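Structure ticket #2291
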Amino acid sequence: VRLVESGGGLVQPGGSLTLSCATSGFAFKTYNMRWYRQTPGKERELVASIDTSGDKNYADFVKGRFTISRDNVKNILYLQMNSLQFEDTAVYYCRRGLGINWGQGTQVTVSS
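Resolution: structure written out below.
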């Protein structure tokens, strides 16, 4: 099982980024997938999830700003992030289901 996040970077408040999580080693389309984020000194928190049917759920703090999606042909999970705020600065991780497999994370920094 391999999960590789990418797409992070430095962005100004109000800007946008799209994160990708390239997966391999498992039947991607049969798993619910999740995005989490973590800042120093805080626990990792759930940002968004998408199930095998494409149903999506979001944490209140990103509703209306972030969109999770998946490409079951390319086996990639996405997180489109709009209207980014300082508070969105974190390392973002993708996760397969509720299992032990995590990616290495990608840093998102929102700064003026």
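Closing remark: The two ends are 37 Å apart (CA to CA).
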